[in-house]
Amino acid sequence: MTTVLVTGGTGLLGRRVARALASDGHTVRILSRTTAGPPTPGADVVVADLATGAGLAEAVAGTSAIVHCATDPRRSRTVDVGGTERLLRAARDAGRPHVVYVSIVGVDRIPTQYYRSKLAAERTIEASGLPWTVLRTTQFHEFVDDLLGRLVRLPVVPVPRGWRFQPVDVEEVARRLADAVACGPAGRLPDLGGPEVLPVAELVRGRLRDTGRRRPVLELPLPGAFAAALRAGADLVPGNRSGGCTWRDFLDGRSRSRLLEG
User: Fold this and answer.
1) 92-150: pLDDT as tens digits
2) Which string of b and e fits 110-121 if b means at least 16 CB within 10 Å?
3) CATH topology of domain 3-138+169-188
4) Contact 66, 91 (CB under 8 A)
5) How many alpha carbons fall within 13 Å on the CB side of residue 111?
6) Does the pLDDT at position 196 exceed 60?
7) CA 8 – CA 70 distance, rounded (Å)
8) Domain ranges (residues) in the chain
9) 45, 78, 161, 219 - which has most CB atoms within 10 Å?
């Protein structure tokens, strides 16, 4: 077994990756800007900052692999691009750890600053001289759920016409990344999507039914290249659907958790 560093190891995906790696018998380090927060069983926390490079040399020392999950849509040039460059420099100085990077389906086709930053990070990893694996996935259930929650609070719910999502189980993604560590460098893996492609309008109406809210839903044709890319399905991978829980499974599991907590 190996020593594996997980960046973004306190986040939604990173915590699950750390647990999966620990269950496989690896020694796991979680990179965090602070030691605060709940501990992850089987993992140690090392304090470092991708935005400045502080502590990165110590974080990567002695590692055989790095699972790079850290991201910040609000500071993508600093964290996703610059932070990846700083991490790779530290990794090269420490040896030749295998870098496993999680990216997003459509980063090369959907024109946003955040996606451009993710694509730049991919290209930096590919050109780093280090052994590497990149996995692009569709949006996690939790991301889609948060977006829908914001929309259905409005008195009239606007829905972009023609948009579809393919939400994926974050546990499934974590397992794929842990398996990538075990399998060794593989370059670009096939993109991974969730088990269902669902129209956003259908998701919104389902969320309204589940919450008992009555809101008019207004489907609107949005202008611009970003909206056109989503209408064209640039965020989807219909030919490579994962296992893991469906959207309904996710909602049912969340409801059970809330009942137990209550």
Assistant:
1) 999 999 999 999 999 999 999 999 999 999 999 999 999 999 999 999 999 999 999 99
2) beeebbbbbbbb
3) Rossmann fold (3.40.50)
4) yes
5) 7
6) yes
7) 4
8) 3-138+169-188
9) 45
